[in-house]
Amino acid sequence: MSTATFQHDFEPCLARLGTTPEEVYALDDIETLRQLIIKKERERQAIANDLEVAARIGLVISETNEAIQIKELDQARRELSKFRKEMDGLSAQLNDMASEMVNSKETERF
């Protein structure tokens, strides 16, 4: 396997760990390289875990916001229904008053 092919196959693995070929080639012993790879893999795992936690928190926030919006809409519907009933009642009272006024004027004519 040529050096270019090896480097071509090797670079995606390094990129996954967030390191460069230069960083690896600068090391003189295998133990240091092993420690670097372990450190980078732990960092990668920590980032992946943080992203998963952030995604879960985002989902909980989204679901909570949706629940709050549903409650607010229900409350608004109840208040609107109550308001409409009150307006219907007032409208009926006004109609009754208007009828009484018409009846009163008709009675006064006779």
TrEMBL record:
Source superkingdom: Eukaryota
Keywords: Coiled coil
Coiled coil: 30-100
Protein name per the record: Uncharacterized protein
Source organism: Rhizopus delemar (strain RA 99-880 / ATCC MYA-4621 / FGSC 9543 / NRRL 43880) (Mucormycosis agent)
